[in-house]
Design goal:
heterotrimer; A alpha/beta; B alpha/beta; C alpha+beta; B: alpha/beta; D-amino Acid Aminotransferase, Chain A, domain 1; Rossmann fold; four-stranded parallel sheet; 10 helices; elongated; C: alpha+beta; two-stranded antiparallel sheet; 7 strands
Chain lengths: ~700, ~325, ~90
């Protein structure tokens, strides 16, 4: 071994070079490592020489190979640590190149690559040990030196400082992720980390446990060594034998995982975690440690008589007992913990809804309310604040429906008997249920809905949708075809504008104080929102004029039919408004649209006296129905928008049928046809193509 | 040569020497573990230079091998080494060699394992037969799915349990989660490791296979991993939620779901899953990474054990 | 990940290629006549299951045979053997 102490593996001042630095994982880890440790001098990648890796505030040079890197870096900036991210078949070649060119400058090579063949591992060991180069890995996650704030590899993930706080425990783990997990467990109990070391878990671990323990022994800041051990190899046997020989003075706390592999033909996640003879199984390793430690396995609450003190350490049987075992050990050995705080590990649910099951569980399985730590608590709150309406989860819908069911006896709409609805409810009531999934919250809502249906039935034979029905009748179609023609003649500017009106109002009121749209105390809020929107419109109109682009009009205002009236109201909308007044119901959305028309005229957004048209009225009625459901996240925003257009389409399709019946009775076949003499040819006649 | 003097040989890689070793004994024909240490010799072989007949001969001599056998046996061992190293094996064992009356060794039983990570055995163009596998449809489908892509692992091993359906992440973590489930009565259905930052489609497919085969019979669904370094939680959890929604209709009763996870983009991931579970109306408890995975597993195991004691009609909400 | 190699593959593929001395062998299925010839030449033989599970001897998947009918019966039985959750691919005589 080259290293004499843990700091020889990694410390501040080390200069790291990264192989295959442009690879997906290498590039990402490099960026975070550089932010955390700033210890990387550059990297190399085949065919990428001369490039750069962009970082937050600087860049890292990319060379074509290791020799190229050495040639271009100044002597004092040459790497002494190498981290290998190359694909498995390239690892041996890269290591060989490094060893050949290093001439004593490289001290440690970290092999992150997984699936390096065992033959290559053996060759790398032979090659590097003869050159006094230490190798960590293969398949290591890396190493972190917490006090020096440096790491190599991905230990600590995206935010090493969140998990790793300086302290006295050195973690040595066969599983990379367990280094992080154990460090966070220990910190909760007041222990910081000295070093976190992922040994890698290929079949050959090129820096075995024995050697790492020797480095930890010579590290004056390591007070306790925490081990996470998996089956496979005789590393623990060798380590324990050596500890006994030298009278190892530092306590260890051990967890041995992988007993399930002892009795079964199972391949665990790691290549080397294979039971192959005495001393390699999890149970054998437990026995080896138990014999060394000389005390029974640790369970929380156990006490130690004076003649049986855990001077050599403890073995825990559950991973979450690790911090408690370390705490007990420090108490018994009369050592101070690294930090004052102490928050024992516990079940802390973040999100919970056990429903009816929760009421039937025995007390031992009932969990109290948890507390979500920062910053996750704020993130969840933020999500709920900005998220409006229901977020639906996708599912198989081919043969499934929330909207309807029929067990052969009772047809149901959202679970409610259609028969009962027929007997006791109006069409408006059933329609609200069918479209929102919930019956109307207020009795007058069904009346409002029905009034909008009447309003939208027809607006005279000249309307595009009525014309479509008449054309269809003239062509000799059936009534349902004429209704389809009516629907086909509804579009964004005819009937479909209600969708935009709903979108506009949702934009204005989502996540505001408005919850009950029929609550008159919202008046000020509504006036404010109308004012804000007007100011915004004015700004946008001016900007649009400057850039000479079309100004996006406000939907459902200024219907041309009523433009020149003295008092500019749509009479159908007025019926609805008067109805609301007659039953003394305030309607926030009607109020909003009226105020908006008024404010836009006064602010100079428009010179016209705008009318609130019937599309807006329909939109307001339905949004009023939908609003409490949106606020309670029981209805999606998308559905609320679409209901407005569906409401218009439903009524107008019926109106189209009315036009059809009339036209079919009294008109002539083909009478909608325009005679050739009245048609205007806008293209000149051209000769036929050759 | 009497049966008692049959020769045992094995070439393996050894964790003590971090090198290939040749193990020899004249007490062949029995399990190597039951051969006393005094009667077997191990010898590290230089991985660069290989085994030569002289080294093999010395070793045989030290064991007391009859003189006329040493030379032919050494030659056979050199050939065996040649096979081991040029075909990229990680272990091979001949037990026993029998020695004919004219002192020629004959290999009378053999087993070996190729190192999948070593390309050499693929270059030999060997005709390696396919052995019929006695595995479940679930295992077979997942194994096929696993080799389809290197993006994210899709490892499962059937455990034959009928309790917890575990969707687990991380090699080390999944092992101790399963162990904890076993200790706490969770009776896990299989061992799984779905880490390695799988993209959406990969995770959706993996979860889909699990749910297709196992959801109907599961007692508790456990989705658990540590604090991920790279795996994006929003992507993986959305994929799981979508697969769950697809297969949930296969159950006639609600299924309690226990979740524990940490890592990049955690909150959107947890909320996506929560939304799905709320839609399904299934009971759930979701933990963050501040609750140890072994505690979550223990809770899921205990919950599953308790539910199994309820009469089946009471499990239905 | 690993790929296991059984004795039959070794006898057929690896031993000849690397000049490792091995006995003659006969893979099942084979003509009764061929089995008879082999037995006549080898005097006695062992029937084995071609299976990737260890401990064949203890599990009764290795059978000493001398008569042709015994050999054929053993080969048939062993070619359909199951051990430690694994299935035999075929059987053979050495």
């Amino acid at each position: 071994m080259h290293a004499k102490s843990l700091t020889d593996l990694l410390c501040r001042g080390d200069r790291v070079a990264v192989s295959n630095i442009t690879g997906r994982e290498a590039a990402k880890v490099t960026e975070i490592s550089q932010r955390y440790a700033a210890n990387i001098v550059g990297g190399w990648a085949l065919g990428r020489g001369g490039g750069e890796i962009p970082l937050e505030q600087s860049t890292l040079p990319v060379f074509s190979d290791y020799a190229d890197l050495l040639e271009h870096l100044p002597p004092e900036g040459r790497p002494n640590k190498i981290i290998i991210y190359s694909p498995p078949e390239a690892v041996y070649g890269e290591v060989k190149n490094v060893v050949k060119a290093a001439s004593g400058s490289v001290q440690t090579i970290f092999i992150i690559t997984e699936h390096v063949s065992i033959e290559v591992s053996a060759k790398i060991h032979k090659l590097c040990s003869s050159e006094q180069i230490d190798v960590i890995g293969g398949n290591t996650l890396g190493v972190i030196n917490v006090a020096d704030h440096v790491r190599i590899g991905a230990v600590g993930g995206d935010a090493p400082e969140e998990t790793f706080h300086p302290g006295s425990a050195t973690i040595i783990s066969n599983s990379g992720n367990m280094v992080n997990t154990i460090a966070s467990y220990l910190y909760g109990a007041g222990f910081g980390t000295r070093f976190g070391i992922s040994t890698g878990k290929d079949q050959l671990i090129l820096t075995p446990l024995r050697d790492l323990l020797e480095l930890a022994l010579h590290d004056e800041f390591t007070q306790v060594i925490v081990l996470y051990v998996e089956p496979g190899g005789l590393y623990e046997q060798m380590a324990v034998q050596w500890m006994q020989e030298v009278g190892f003075p530092k306590p260890i706390v051990v967890y041995v995982g992988g007993t399930i592999a002892d009795d079964r033909h199972l391949s665990l996640g790691h290549a080397g975690a294979v039971v192959e003879g005495a001393g390699t199984s999890a149970r054998d390793k437990m026995a080896i440690f138990d014999a060394y430690l000389g005390v029974p396995p640790f369970t929380p609450g156990m006490t130690f008589p004076p003649d049986c003190r855990p001077n050599r350490g403890l073995r825990v049987q559950a991973l979450h007992d690790l911090p408690e075992a370390v705490r007990v050990l420090y108490d018994v050995l009369e050592r101070e913990r690294d930090y004052r705080h102490y928050s024992p590990l516990r079940l802390n649910p973040w999100l919970k809804n056990m429903g009816k099951l929760g009421t039937r569980l025995p007390p031992a399985l009932v969990l109290g309310e948890g507390t979500i730590p920062s910053p996750y608590k704020e993130q969840i709150e933020q999500f709920h604040r900005t998220q409006f309406g229901r977020m639906t989860a996708r599912r198989e819908m081919r043969n499934a429906s929330h909207a309807s069911s029929n067990d052969g006896a009772t047809p149901r709409i959202y679970g409610r008997s259609a028969l009962h609805l027929m007997e006791t409810r109006s069409f408006g009531h059933a329609l609200v249920l069918s479209w929102t999934g919930h019956p109307p919250a207020k009795p007058f809502e069904a009346d409002l809905v029905e009034k909008t249906l009447i309003a939208a039935l027809s607006n005279g034979p000249g309307t595009i949708s009525a014309q479509a029905a008449k054309l269809s009748a003239s062509a000799g179609n059936s009534p349902h075809t004429a209704m389809i023609a009516t629907l086909a003649a509804i579009g964004d500017v005819h009937g479909g504008n209600g969708r935009e009106a709903v979108a506009l109002m949702i934009d204005s009121f989502a996540n505001s104080a408005l919850v009950d749209p029929y609550d008159a105390s919202c008046k000020d809020l509504v006036a404010q929102k109308a004012h804000d929107l007007t100011a915004d419109l004015l700004r946008r109109k001016r900007a649009a004029a400057e850039q000479d682009v079309a100004f996006q009009r406000v939907p459902c205002l200024g219907h041309p039919v009523y433009r020149n009236d003295e008092v500019n109201y749509d009479p159908r909308e007025q019926v609805l408004t008067r109805f609301l007044e007659s039953i003394s119901v305030y309607h926030a959305f009607f109020d909003f649209y009226h105020q908006l028309a008024f404010a836009m005229r006064h602010a100079g957004v428009t010179r016209n006296v705008l009318a609130v048209n019937v599309d807006a009225a329909i939109a307001c009625v339905w949004l009023g129905v939908c609003w409490p459901l949106l606020c309670a996240k029981r209805l999606s925003v998308e559905r609320a928008k679409n209901i407005a257009i569906a409401a218009f389409a439903l009524a107008r399709a019926a109106g189209g049928a009315g036009e059809y019946f009339d036209h079919a009775d009294f008109g002539q076949p083909m009478d909608m046809r325009i005679p050739v003499s009245e048609c205007v040819a806008l293209s000149p006649d051209l000769p036929d193509d050759e | 040569m009497p049966a008692a003097n049959e020769v045992y040989t094995a070439i393996t890689y050894d964790s003590r020497y971090l090198s290939p070793i040749l193990t020899l004994s004249l007490r062949g024909g029995m399990d190597v573990e039951s051969i006393p240490d005094s009667e077997k010799r191990s010898f590290p072989v230089d991985v660069y230079q290989g085994l030569d007949a002289y080294q093999a001969g010395e070793l045989l001599e030290a064991l007391g091998c009859p003189r006329p056998v040493i030379s032919p046996m050494s030659r056979a061992l050199v050939n065996l080494w040649d096979m081991f190293i040029t075909s990229g094996m990680k272990m091979c064992e001949v037990n026993p060699w029998r020695i004919s009356e004219d002192h020629r060794p004959v290999a009378c039983d053999f087993k070996a394992v190729f190192d999948e990570a070593n390309f050499k055995h693929r270059n030999l163009e060997l005709e390696l037969p396919e052995y019929p596998e006695n595995v479940s449809e679930f295992q077979e489908e997942m194994d096929r799915w696993n080799v389809k892509s290197y993006q994210g692992q899709a490892h499962v091993s059937e455990l034959g349990g009928s309790g917890v359906l575990p969707i687990l992440f991380g090699g080390g973590a999944s092992t101790i989660i399963i162990e904890t489930l076993m200790q706490s009565g969770g009776d896990p259905m299989f061992l799984s490791d779905f880490g390695g930052n799988p993209p959406y489609d990969r995770m959706r497919g993996t979860a889909g296979i699990c749910f297709k085969h196992k959801l109907a019979k599961a007692g508790v669904l456990l989705i658990l991993g540590g604090k991920a370094n790279n795996t994006r939680i929003d992507v993986t959890f959305q994929a799981i939620a979508d697969a769950l929604a697809e297969y949930a209709p296969r159950r006639s009763t609600e299924l309690p779901v226990i979740v524990g996870r940490g890592g990049p983009r955690l909150v959107p991931g947890l909320l996506a899953l929560q939304r799905c579970l709320e839609e399904l109306g299934w009971p759930y408890t979701i933990f963050g990474h501040d609750t140890p995975i072994t505690m979550v597993a223990q809770y899921a195991g205990q919950l599953c054990k308790y539910l199994a004691t309820l009469p089946s009609d009471r499990k239905t909400a | 990940m690993s790929h296991e190699v059984g004795e039959l593959t070794f006898l057929r593929e690896l031993a000849p290629r690397y000049a490792v001395p091995v006995p003659e062998f006969l893979e099942w299925p084979a003509e009764r006549k061929t089995v008879q010839d082999c037995l006549a030449r080898w005097k006695s033989a062992v029937a084995k299951a071609d299976i990737l599970a260890g401990g064949r001897g203890k599990a009764g998947l290795v059978e000493q045979v001398s008569a042709v009918s015994d050999a054929v019966r053993a080969l048939k039985r062993l070619s359909a053997a199951e051990h430690k959750g694994r299935l035999a691919r075929t059987s053979y005589l050495v």
